[in-house]
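The protein record minuted underneath.
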Amino acid sequence: MGDPTRLRIILALRVGELCVCDLAAVLNMSQSAISHQLRILRGLHLVRNRREGKEVYYSLDDDHVISMLAQAADHVRHTLEREE
């Protein structure tokens, strides 16, 4: 997930599908920056898209994406607790 923007996009898509313009507004970023990160996330099969007229809507590829992130967060939390 090398870029924090990708995580922010995934978290924004938890509520449902959004178009690039909505993601750009929510994340306060340019549409081109969002599109670039979405292209990477699609390549990783973390998000999918569908076209409706001129708009392209993005959503999480499946529920495993969120559970994967939750497991990663739990792992980090556990590792930090052991170091204390």
Notes: The beta strands are 18-19, 47-52, 55-60. The first helix runs from residue 4 to 12. The mean pLDDT is 90.
